């Protein structure tokens, strides 16, 4: 549905609620704010197919800014707030943005304004920026004349190298025309105008941004957490009567590690669908979540690239534990390194065919590397997995993180899944490190619940615990401890940063 129609029908209904501050943006305010910004962008010469970028915390006007671009037929890039100046400048330049929007709390952007024609700042000003509030207030709240659907152009998080911009085709469809995501969400999760969607993750990530905008099209209220906290998330479910939500497995783990009496205090019975994705979920974690919340968990596997959508509900998962589901969009092919298809049960690179095509913006080499080596038109997100006889897909690991030790392939996700549920572990990363004899050895870096526990005793306990559940060669030979791991707020682990430290220390050979 068109945002303007919803605003006309329910002008005073909350469109956005900030869970921490309680600030409300009504549908009328969301519609008018996005129209004013669209008018400003149009007055500055931006037309369908042009590009804007923004770096913001989970701000009350975040979704209004996205809606302004969406209804203007623009490409828009939401940028991680964790990036440093060089990374920010690279993305803004690479996506060819003509406008950039940030807030006074974003020090990286404030200190070094990107080189674009229009720069706006919320909540204050800094050299090189105009006041967002002052500039937008000068424009009418009526829609621009040539409204049409835009699309996000988001960048991979850079866990395996330079961020890659995923540029989909711009449909320029009439504003309000539902796209594939709307249809998928409607079919699988069945939201309606009475739904309340809890979004606990940063809005610059693909899933939170896309799902929030899509839930608005149903007339639903979106409750945005400024920052994830396990206890506050449970409180928000109860307070706002959340019916739908989306999570990552690390959020489940942190909620499950709350004291039992804390978890029991909150009524989560309003939830009808709890969706999770972004990273593999350890089987014991998902079992406990279904036991706690009921069979309302929905899991999907997809990527910013949009070349596939794999899905499972709780019922199918319970009979195929560990699966991420079956293809709803696209068809899966499991291939070896030469591109030969592998039989059920045998792991290989997951390729998907007969789905939407994508390209990495201004990077033909990365686009080519994502394609089927035999030229059959299939594409991959870089994950390794297998398919069972019923067509259910199981992820093994990222291809980039496979460890080769003594000629044997080891997928570190298995050890991570085991160690993540250990009662004294808050977070864990497993990867390969240089080894003179075996080529690579399995290393675990652990964030313990208390750094007071870090030491040889806990190291031995974790290695023994892992060996109780997995073959010895899959388990870490050593464990290092850190007070915090470099994990993205969306749940994705910056394993490359950890791994690079150990490989940088590798001695050179003559």
Mean pLDDT comes to 92
Number of domains: 4
Are there runs of 5+ residues with pLDDT below 50, and where? Answer: none
Class by alpha and beta content? alpha/beta
| Main sheet characteristics | 9 strands, mixed
CATH class of the largest domain: Alpha Beta
CATH topology of the largest domain: Rossmann fold
Q: Quaternary state, please?
A: single chain
Q: End-to-end distance, in Å?
A: 66 Å
β-strand percent reads: 15-25%
Spatial ordering of strands, largest sheet: 2-1-10-9-11-12-13-14-15
Radius of gyration: 23 Å
Please state the overall shape, judged from the principal axes of the Cα atoms.
Answer: globular
Give an account of the 3D structure.
With 510 residues, this protein is of the alpha/beta class. It has 4 domains: 28-177, Rossmann fold; 189-299, Rossmann fold, CATH 3.40.50.980; 306-401, Luciferase, domain 3, CATH 2.30.38; 403-504, GMP Synthetase, Chain A, domain 3. The chain has 17 helices and 24 strands. A 9-stranded mixed beta sheet has the order 2-1-10-9-11-12-13-14-15, sandwiched between helices. It has a 6-stranded parallel beta sheet with strand order 7-6-5-3-4-8. Helix 3 (62-70) links the parallel strand 3 and strand 4. The longest helix is centred in the first third of the chain and has 17 residues, at 27-43. It starts with a helix and ends in a 6-residue tail after the last helix.
